[in-house]
Design goal:
Number of domains of chain B: 3
Structural class of chain B: alpha/beta
Structural class of chain A: alpha/beta
Strand order of the largest sheet of chain A: 1-6-7-8
Number of strands of chain A: 8
Strand content of chain B: 15-25%
Largest interface: A-B, 60 and 71 residues
Distance between the termini of chain B: 50 Å
Largest sheet of chain B: 5 strands, parallel
Oligomer: heterodimer
CATH class of the largest domain in chain B: Alpha Beta
CATH superfamily of the largest domain in chain B: Aconitase, domain 3
CATH architecture of the largest domain in chain B: 2-Layer Sandwich
Number of helices of chain A: 8
Low-confidence stretches of chain B: none
Bound molecules: iron/sulfur cluster
CATH topology of the largest domain in chain B: Aconitase, domain 3
Helix content of chain B: 25-40%
Largest sheet of chain A: 4 strands, antiparallel
Radius of gyration of chain B: 21 Å
Number of strands of chain B: 18
Number of helices of chain B: 16
Radius of gyration of chain A: 19 Å
Helix content of chain A: 25-40%
Strand content of chain A: 15-25%
Mean pLDDT of chain B: 97
Shape of chain B: globular
Shape of chain A: globular
């Protein structure tokens, strides 16, 4: 099986300058009843995106006619709360390929990486810079360059580097997935089990 | 020998391999699953044509979707029924023990794992559920994972994890009357914020922690995820061993003696160094309640919502958005504010002690007629115990009814939804927008504070009732 590859992404951005966007907002619990991975994009940010009468909420950025793109730019502590991977599936299914924030919750970060959705952690100052630029001109292009580990605000060429473990980076660049990797470690795992049984009797 | 923290001791022992420039391959001793986050992992495994490596190390329950009334009947809602059925079929097919609906061991995954003695000191424990941190109360490394990782555990009994940084939070001194472990954790989160421990694994220590029962310790570790921590843990001691002795899956006889000998080694060495240390005084903690839409937005029940200008500038927009959702004003007190619903339950406060605390306060009083209350035990065993102790009687006389176990209004995937705009004092762990139903307004608090609200019909300091 393979992971969707990620290399260089150039896109306009969708700004969501809200802090502590938790996974209950990204995909509310009542939409977690599916037993497959598909189709969650439809309910991405459901309760912010639609009014009570199910009409689109015009105030919400996903319904805006001007903001488009496959990069979501969000406030600090994105993806907190529930471990539901459905949040990463919903963002990816909707069409996002990268999320930029000044801080990500740990479980969300893992879930995103395991689905080819790149979490890009930037400084608060750089986040503000992108948000300001996007709000001034919705067509502003941002480049997320995974090989160089850089995010670049194209009109001004301002950039910042971001962190990712070299293991995860190579997974994303090559489309390798963790499970294949772990399956290739079978012998090691077996040896570990034998050793720990000797040492701890478990 | 190099001084080590409790966390290091357990983690290092479980590393199968350290990947150059990457995470560790971490071996998992115990894996819990439930109906919501496991189906796609089973499908993934089948698509790869890979067997479950150690079905005996995985234990399943149905808890998130199930009704809390009429559990002997088929689940009415089609999608929920389908999800529970899928779990049952998957467990049968792959040889996983399932404590499904109506099983005497059924209940919320983090309640049953501990009460059955499945979670034991020194283990690594994961579940596709963020509140897996609960099990850390037994001196384990326990953390929530996503569905891809559930599939990894199925396939290899391992996950890939970067080693988190280590934090110790010490609570010195003694708690005041009416202050519980729920208040400790709500207080800590209010002090360090909902992201204050992101990237860290937290050990809780200090006199106030040592004096807590296992149930109370579980409440603290449970909510460590609400400050962003990867997990929380408490070193095992006599309280832990007493709790585990003679549990269904605890070691027995000679094995027990041997296990306790090993468990006694599980503590942080005196010289060990943490990446971050925080200390609080138990004496500063009062009964707490949240006023906003993340668990960091907490105040003493008697206190006031912060004034706008006391909130850092960059947080003001989120603060205002939150208050708008709750329909509260800055710089005001919540005491006396109307309460429409009271929810006692969840993996945070759905254990026998929580029911006892609630019952002790409402005993001989009457529920306010304007309040709808849902009392949901965390498991079949908790329900059974409550009945054996006559708590159901006490509750009934006060106008409350014991429902059947499950996650219930904690995340409102079943029918237990707080209606839009209503105020619910809940003993659960998340006050996010819509968490307890679209438009629901949640105030998190301890079982005592919830009980006081149910009797008064408004927010009240529980200490007044004690
Ligand atoms: S009770 Fe709530 S927090 Fe706990 S496992 Fe169930 S849904 Fe999750």
């Amino acid at each position: 099986m393979s992971l969707p590859k990620f290399n260089i992404l150039e896109s306009s951005c969708v700004p969501l300058p809200v802090e502590n966007v938790d996974t209950d907002q990204i995909i509310p619990a009542r939409f977690l009843k599916a037993t497959s991975r598909e189709g969650f994009g439809e309910n991405l940010f459901r309760d912010w995106r639609y009014n009570k009468d199910q009409s689109p909420n015009k105030e919400f950025v996903l319904n805006s006619p001007v903001y488009r793109g496959s990069i979501l730019v969000a406030g600090k502590n994105f993806g907190s709360g529930s471990s539901r991977e459905h949040a990463a599936w919903a963002l990816f299914d909707y069409g996002f390929r990268a999320v930029v924030s000044s801080f990500f919750a740990d479980i969300f970060k893992n879930n995103a990486l395991n689905n080819g959705l790149l979490p890009v952690q930037v400084s608060e100052a750089f986040l503000e810079k992108i948000l300001n630029a996007v709000q001034a001109d919705p067509d502003v292009q941002v480049r997320v360059d995974l090989p160089q580990q850089q995010i670049i605000l194209l009109p001004t060429n301002e950039w910042e580097s971001f962190e990712i473990s070299s293991y995860k980076k190579s997974c994303l660049l090559n489309g390798f997935d963790d499970i294949d990797f772990l399956l290739s470690k079978k012998e090691k795992i077996k040896a570990y089990e034998l050793k720990s049984e000797l040492l701890y009797g478990t | 020998m190099e001084a080590k923290t409790l966390f290091d001791k357990i983690w290092d022992r479980h590393v199968v391999e350290n990947i150059e420039g990457g995470p560790d391959i971490l071996y998992i001793d115990r894996h819990y699953i439930h109906e919501v986050t496991s189906p796609q992992a089973f499908t993934g495994l089948e698509n790869r044509k890979v067997p479950l490596l150690h079905p005996e190390k995985t234990v399943a329950t149905a808890d998130h979707n199930i009704p809390t009334k009429g559990q002997h009947l088929p689940i009415q809602e089609v999608l929920s029924r389908q999800q529970v059925k899928t779990l049952t079929e998957n467990c049968e097919k792959h040889g996983v023990d399932l404590y499904g609906l109506n099983h005497p061991y059924n209940g919320i995954v983090h309640v049953i794992g501990t009460e059955l003695g499945l979670s034991q000191p020194g283990m690594t424990i994961v579940c596709g559920d963020s509140h897996t941190s609960t099990h850390g109360a037994f001196g384990t490394i326990a953390f929530g994972i996503g569905t891809s990782e559930v599939e990894m555990v199925f396939a290899s009994q391992c996950v890939l994890q970067p080693k988190p940084r280590k934090m110790r939070i010490t609570i010195d001194g003694e708690l005041q009357k009416g202050v519980t472990s729920k208040d400790i954790i709500l207080y800590v989160i209010s002090q360090i914020s909902a992201s204050g421990a992101t990237g860290y694994f937290v050990e809780f220590a200090g006199e106030a922690i040592r004096n807590l029962s296992m149930e109370a310790r579980m409440t603290i570790c449970n909510m460590s995820i609400e400050m962003g921590a990867r997990g929380g843990m408490i070193a095992p001691d006599e309280v832990t061993f007493d709790y585990l002795r003679n549990r269904e899956f605890s070691p027995k006889g000679k094995d027990w003696e041997k296990a306790v000998e090993q468990w006694k080694q599980l503590k942080t060495d005196e010289e060990a160094v943490f990446d971050k240390e925080l200390t609080f005084s138990a004496n500063d903690i009062q009964p707490m309640i949240t006023y906003g839409t993340n668990p960091g937005m907490g105040i003493a029940v008697q206190g006031k919502i912060p004034a706008l200008n006391s909130v850092p500038k960059q947080n003001q927009a989120s603060f205002q958005k939150s208050l708008q959702y709750m329909n509260f004003k800055p710089d005001t007190s919540l005491v006396g504010h109307r309460v429409d619903y009271v929810f006692l339950g969840s993996c945070t406060n759905g254990r026998i002690e929580d029911l006892r605390a609630f019952a002790s306060l409402v005993k001989g009083k009457k529920k306010a007629s304007t309040v709808t209350a849902w009392i949901v035990p965390g498991s079949q065993q908790v329900a059974k115990q409550a009945k054996a102790e006559g708590l159901d009687q006490i509750l009934e006389e006060a106008g409350f009814e014991l429902r059947e176990p499950g996650c219930s209004a904690c995340l409102a995937m079943n029918d237990d939804k707080i209606p839009e705009g209503k105020y619910a004092v809940s003993t659960s762990n998340r006050n996010f927008e819509g968490r307890q139903g679209p438009g629901a307004r949640t105030l998190l608090a301890s079982p005592l504070t919830a009980a006081a609200a149910a009797i008064a019909g408004k927010i009240t300091n529980p200490v007044d009732f004690l």
